[in-house]
Amino acid sequence: MPVPWVQYVLDEPLSVYLQGPWSYIRSYGIYAGAAFLARKYFAGSTNTWERNMHGKVVMVTGGTSGIGAAVVEDLARRGAQIVLLVRSLSDEFTVDYITDLRARTDNQLIYAEACDLADLSSVRKFATKWIDNAPVRRLDMVICAAGVATPPFKERRVTRDGVEEQWGVNYLAHTHLLNILSPALRAQPADRDVRVILLTCAAYVLADLDLADFDFQKRGYPSSRPWRVYGASKLALMTYGAELQRRCDVYERPDKNPNKVRVMMVDPGLIRTSLTRRFLTFGSLFGLLIYLLTWLFWAFILKTPLGGAQPVLHCAMSPEVLQGEGGKLFGECREKKAQRKEVEDRGFATALWEVTEKEVKALEVRSTLEKKKAEKAEKVAEKKEAKKGKLSYMNMPGSPSEASRIWYKTFRYKLMNEAPSHNSAFKVYSLHAPVFP
């Protein structure tokens, strides 16, 4: 009967039932609490600002994966018009991604534009098409979230322009894009705040940046320490951002209103993305196996892409970032001081800007000449193939050329056998082939 059991439960003190669990709490509670606090620390801060993004036009590089994808989805849910810069518009993954994103966010104002960051001519083609419009097209925000990182002990990779991939994609492509778009950014109405957000990485502290040898061609590519190259690209991007802010500040608008462009650099922290995973696994199957075995550790100390997107969203929404001077570094949703003096060195920034412009110009000229040479060679090859195909057709049995050749042989045979041998004129005529149409 249940009545005696109920009576027993009511008669016993509560401490009897808590004695077992309480011993476990006293033994392991401190470790559980420490783990909870550590995880909260590694997870980073959260953006607390809200902003109505309806009608805002946001251009994003690297918006289909990692931090960029998390930022894009959050802004799309708030009603922003998103322009994704992608390598190819015909890529099935891109088409499916945009279709799914539109359905998830209930926002149909999500588009893609072809802009391959590994090809400077593709960047120029898109950017010039964007600014070639009157009146100027609306552009409220540019978020540069794309990036590549070569794993250790891998060979040096280059872009289509022949420059080291990390330097070319992380730095040159973004600076080239912003330099061309800068007139459109400065020409926005005075009552519209324009934000440029550049994603960097803590690896900039380890950078080895030499203005005479950007991509380690002379010094040799450090395959055992690729973070020197990756960090150099991020350090250069931060220095460029600070200089871009200074140049926007000194620009005098035709309407005499103050500058409304704000450039911000964001360090999102350590994020669990495909780029980080490929770097940690050294780009190998054995490294991937080790990563899977230690996955709990990496899941504990690395932020999720959404967690890494929080400082970016803070810079995209907070009105505080518009106060004071621009060109600042942000991390964990607050302003930080850069750990490398080059970021705030105006002389170094000016030299970097000038050298970058020369390098981009030289790469574009070389790339254009190579493309023209390749196109010319392709046309010659096509003509040869067409000629070869035509000759093959003319030599086919039953073709006009074959019929003419048979007729001529028959006609010449008859002339040589039926004509008098003393007629020299006739002999001369018979030795020369007639002209056929």
Structure in words:
The protein has three domains: 2-43, no CATH class; 57-268 and 303-366, NAD(P)-binding Rossmann-like Domain (Rossmann fold, 3-Layer(aba) Sandwich); 400-430, no CATH class. Helix content is 54%, strand content 9%. The protein has 14 helices and eight strands. α3 (66-77) runs parallel beside α4. The chain is globular. The relative contact order is 0.10. Keywords: Membrane, Oxidoreductase, Transmembrane, Transmembrane helix.
Topology:
Blueprint: H1 2-11, H2 14-43, E1 57-61, H3 66-77, E2 81-86, H4 92-105, E3 110-114, H5 120-131, E4 141-144, H6 165-186, E5 194-199, H7 227-250, E6 261-266, H8 274-280, H9 285-293, H10 295-301, H11 305-317, E7 328-331, E8 334-336, H12 346-394, H13 400-418, H14 424-430
Parallel strand pairs: 1-2, 1-4, 2-3, 4-5, 5-6, 6-7
Antiparallel strand pairs: 7-8
Helix pairs in contact: 3-4, 3-11, 5-6, 6-7, 7-12
